[in-house]
Protein 1
Amino acid sequence: MIGQPVPDLALPATGDQVIGFAELRGAPFVLYFYPKDNTPGCTTEGQQFRDLHDRFARLGCRVFGVSRDSIKSHESFKAKMGFPFELLSDQDEKACAAFDVIRMKNMYGRQVRGIERSTFAVDAAGIVRAQWRAVKVPGHAEQVLDFVKSQLGSK
């Protein structure tokens, strides 16, 4: 994905919105794909992006969380966690397929299809400039912020 234009997709988002990736051009943004709302790792990851949100915003960079959960689930998760960024619903897996984040994973001894925790940093021209796959949550949001600060920040 690095060096490729972000796919021209639009996804339903919290706040009764539809977010089109093409419409985000003009400023950098981060898409972090996570497996499921209200699960321990996903909650921690979202909290870390939440806690750094002001620093991303000062760099002119928006942050979006993406999973296959419904908008109703996202609205509840966002409110419960106080996320200042939007969550995008990819129930038909169009973005998941475009970013190649669906994997077979072991869950309690059986194989299940799910999102591999992955993050993508996109520059103001809509080009993917960094990707992190098979993300380990501790320190990840800070790592993404450091990349944005050094490579994509506009302020």
Protein 2
Amino acid sequence: MDNVRTLGARKNIALVAHDHKKRDMINWVEYNKAALARHELIATGTTGRLIEDQLDRPVKKLLSGPLGGDQQIGSMIAEGKIDALIFFWDPMEAQPHDPDIKALLRVAVTWNIPFACDRATADFLLTSPLMYSSYDCIIPDYSAYIKRSV
């Protein structure tokens, strides 16, 4: 049996950007300033500071990604505290914390939250009418997985 978690009309959006994608993220948040004002923003360290400066509004800032910020966001997703993830990652450069990045994307899929890894998808996500109304997010039932013996 699946579980349902209702995402409110005001979403908690996590924002993450690798170093070579921070400028893209800043441009994107500036372009979407009005839409983002309707939501709560959470971000990893430097990205959060840059966004806060650009939008002149508070952003909940976590640790830098390599210092555990990606894992903090993953934990918040698992706890039901993040409703959407915008993660501008750099596909052309290996990151020292690649396992953390893979884990973050896996947990987003596991908990069935909407996420975007590029600007076009982020634009589609943010302009969806579902971003501005309550939405029942179906979470798969993992009880059989949890109970299985090793």
